[in-house]
Amino acid sequence: MADGLATSFTITLPAWLGALLPDLPSHLATPEEQMALVHRLADRNWREGNGGPFAAIVVDAATGELVSVGVNVVLASGVSSGHAEVTALGLAQARLGTWDLGAHRNLALVVNWRPCVQCYGATMWSGVTRLVVAGDGPELERLTHFDEGPMVADWAAQFEARGISVVQDVLRDEALAVFRAYGESDATVYNARGQGALERD
Length: 201
Prior knowledge:
Blueprint lengths: L14 H6 L10 H18 L6 E6 L5 E6 L2 H4 L6 H13 L10 E5 L5 H8 L5 E4 L5 H6 L10 H7 L3 E3 L4 H12 L18
Parallel strand pairs: 3-4, 4-5
Antiparallel strand pairs: 1-2, 1-3
C-alpha cells in the first residue's frame, strides 16, 4: 500500500479577506459597482502576498445579491488551481449546496479579466448564466508577465452558445491600472510567460 499520500487539499480565503467579509455590501446593483469591488480586492490581494492581482465574485444576476467572493490564493495555498474564479465559484457552490449554480437562479461571475484556460472551463461548467469581465486582450500578459494559456479566439461566442451571456469592458482602465502596479512591483510571478507553466488567476 502506498504510504504518505495526501487525501485532501483546501482552498481558503486569506485572513484579511475573511475579516473584511462582514463589511462588504450585501447587494451590488450594477456591473460597475460589482467590478469596483473586484478591483479593490484584486489590488489588495497581490499586495498581501496571497497570489496574483485577480479577484472574482458571484452575484445574483437580477438582484445583485453578493453570493461569494474569491481571490487568487495560489501562493498562499500552494495549489496551482487556486485562481480567483475557481475560489469564488467553489465557495458559491458550497454556500448553495449544489455543483450547478444555475439550478435554481441566474447567477453571474464577475472577474477582472477574461478567464485563463483553466478558469474558462471552470466557468463554463459551473452553471452561471452570465459572465462580466473588465476586459480581454494581450494587455494582461504584457503588464503582468503571466501566461494565460492557449485561449480560443471565439471564447465569448462559445460561452454565448452555451447560454452564458458575456458582458465585456466594465471598468477596463481600472483593471489595467491594477495589473500595471503589479507588473512594476517585485511580486512573484508564479506562471511567467516562457517559464514553463504553473498557473494564473
